[in-house]
UniProtKB/TrEMBL annotation:
Protein name according to UniProt: DNA-binding transcriptional regulator NtrC
Organism listed in the record: Solilutibacter tolerans
Domain Sigma-54 factor interaction: 148-377
GO molecular-function term, one example from the UniProt record: sequence-specific DNA binding
Alphabetic keyword roster: Activator, ATP-binding, Cytoplasm, DNA-binding, Nitrogen fixation, Nucleotide-binding, Phosphoprotein, Repressor, Transcription, Transcription regulation, Two-component regulatory system
Organism classification: Bacteria, Pseudomonadati, Pseudomonadota, Gammaproteobacteria, Lysobacterales
Pfam family, one: HTH_8
Function summary: Member of the two-component regulatory system NtrB/NtrC, which controls expression of the nitrogen-regulated (ntr) genes in response to nitrogen limitation. Phosphorylated NtrC binds directly to DNA and stimulates the formation of open promoter-sigma54-RNA polymerase complexes.
Length: 479
């Protein structure tokens, strides 16, 4: 335990003030409690500041974030813990932007709060020399609507991480199953970052044919290749000063991985067919639903690129692991759908909501959103019952796990406008089958072939075709 310190607790809720102050006193600290920010500010003007301050956000009079701002202006090194029951991205990001040491969601565990106090005090002692000036960040408004919905502990933790990472210009890798909201998370990181007034440019690596990807990313000069009539400015240049979101990064062809790595290391590149060296300042946020570490182990994804992209990792939990959020999301989607469709608002009945909460949602939030739109358009009454959920839920319930995932994946790609899906899907299907069979046969092709009921030559041919395609020689032959 660290040595005794002076700690202030500011909260208009007597109960919180009392239990937190008592717990901190029991841990050996000298604690003063204030029931408003104004009181604490008056005290600080005439007295030595404490070593640590806990403050609530919403209080009559001056709020906690305004208190944080004033304290940080006068005492930049004073660690402040912001406490609140509101854990949307905007509030948490507002706190971190204002220089908060930590954001504590209410209700909190007292042991956790005391441990946090010790950590803040230790760090403040250790980093006294580090400049914690927050000048420009204090002025930014937090007026972005809370697009990301969620109140479960997992989502609250995610919002806190978003608020925290948004402030530093580090590359972020977002992982999570399809439809969990990775793109929304990327947008939130950008929106809450100092780059918010600069462009957010998104590129879905999987939706663009490999041979066009390089020019899409880095641009090309007129005449660089057949069909390149005009100069094209790539996404990197479009995103200059802002954020480039690379979705489905796991699908990036090997040659381009190498090029991307070089650009990230050097911060400059040539357009395809160009001679002018282009320098850009871009923050990269990438996303994947694939286990990239595993793909790196298999040699399909470059380890050094993974390290460069994965400076900070944000994991978005699947919807079935945060079922308590389903009613919130469903109500929001159905209300938005009604507004968009110009129809009378509908609400979910209790049984329907229960049914939604029981479903496994292999397509995650996107699947729930699609269902809500369908129901908004189709359900005859204003109160939605189980029968209105209809085939949507039933037919998906009928499939096995992987069929559901495949259906969700295909739907998403088709909605994104992707073509040639059959060949790609077949190749991936075969690859999974072959790799699994090889793994259980210790890499022995003959045995893998026997177990799959295929000839050994077929296995060799399929593996060859799969590898060739992966090394991006254009090949549309079936498998
Ligand atoms: N927490 C959330 N609150 C509100 N809407 C959400 C949330 N998460 C996802 N959505 C909505 O669900 C849909 C899918 O989200 P998004 O495209 O961000 O998922 P994704 O993980 O990037 O998917 P993919 O892996 O398929 O690219 C979007 O319409 C998005 O607005």
């Amino acid at each position: 335990m660290s040595e005794a310190a002076r700690i202030w607790v500011v909260d208009d809720d007597h109960g919180v003030r009392f239990v937190l102050a008592t717990a901190l006193r029991e841990a050996g600290h000298e604690v003063r409690a204030f029931n408003s920010a104004d009181e604490a500010l008056m005290e600080i003007a005439s007295n030595t500041p404490p070593a640590l301050l806990f403050t609530d956000v919403r209080m009559p009079g001056e709020g906690g974030l305004a208190l944080l701002e004033k304290l940080k202006a006068a005492h930049p090194r004073l660690p402040v813990v912001v406490m609140s029951a509101y854990t949307d991205v905007a509030s948490t990001a507002g706190a971190f932007r204002g220089g908060a040491f930590e954001y504590l969601s209410k209700p909190f565990d007292l042991d956790e709060a005391v441990a946090l106090a010790e950590r803040a005090l230790d760090e403040a002692r250790g980093i006294a020399e580090i400049n914690t000036s927050t000048e420009d960040v204090l002025t930014k408004q937090s007026d972005i609507p809370p697009a990301l919905i969620g109140q479960t502990p997992a989502m609250r933790a995610l919002f806190r991480s978003i608020g925290r990472v948004a402030q530093a210009p580090l590359n972020v890798l977002i992982t999570g199953e399809t439809g969990t909201g990775k793109e929304l998370v990327a947008r939130a990181v950008h929106a809450e970052s100092p780059r918010t007034h600069k462009p957010f440019v998104a590129l879905n690596t999987a939706a663009i044919p490999a041979e066009l990807l390089e020019s899409e990313l880095f641009g090309h000069e007129a005449g660089a290749f057949t069909g390149a009539n005009k100069r094209h400015i790539g996404r990197f240049e479009q995103a200059d000063g802002g954020t480039l979101f690379l979705d489905e990064i796991g699908d990036m062809p090997a040659a381009l991985q190498t090029r991307l790595l070089r650009v990230l290391a050097e911060g400059e590149f040539f357009r395809v067919g160009g001679r002018e060296l282009i320098r850009v300042d871009v923050r990269i946020i990438s996303a994947t639903h694939q286990p990239l570490e595993k793909r790196a182990d298999e040699g399909v994804f470059r380890v050094d690129l993974l390290h460069r992209l994965n400076v900070v990792h944000l994991a978005v939990p699947p919807l079935r692991e945060r079922r308590e959020d389903i009613p919130l999301l469903a109500e929001d989607f159905i209300a938005r759908a009604a507004r968009k469709l110009g129809i009378t608002p509908k609400t979910f009945g209790k049984a329907a909501l229960q049914k939604l909460q029981q479903h496994d949602w292999p397509g995650n939030v996107r699947e729930l959103e699609n269902l809500c739109w369908r129901v908004a358009a189709m359900a005859p009454g204003e109160r939605i019952g189980i029968a209105d959920l209809g085939d949507g839920l039933r037919s998906r319930d009928a499939g096995t796990g992987w069929e559901q995932s495949l259906a969700a994946w295909v739907t998403q790609r088709l909605e994104a406008g992707e073509t040639g899906l059959h060949a790609k899907t077949r190749e991936r299907f075969d690859r999974v089958l072959l790799e699994a069979a090889l793994a259980v046969s210790d890499g022995h092709r003959g045995r893998a072939a026997d177990r799959l009921g295929l000839g050994r030559n077929t296995v060799t041919r399929k593996l060859g075709a799969s590898r060739r395609r992966r090394s991006h020689k254009k090949n549309d032959a079936g498998l």
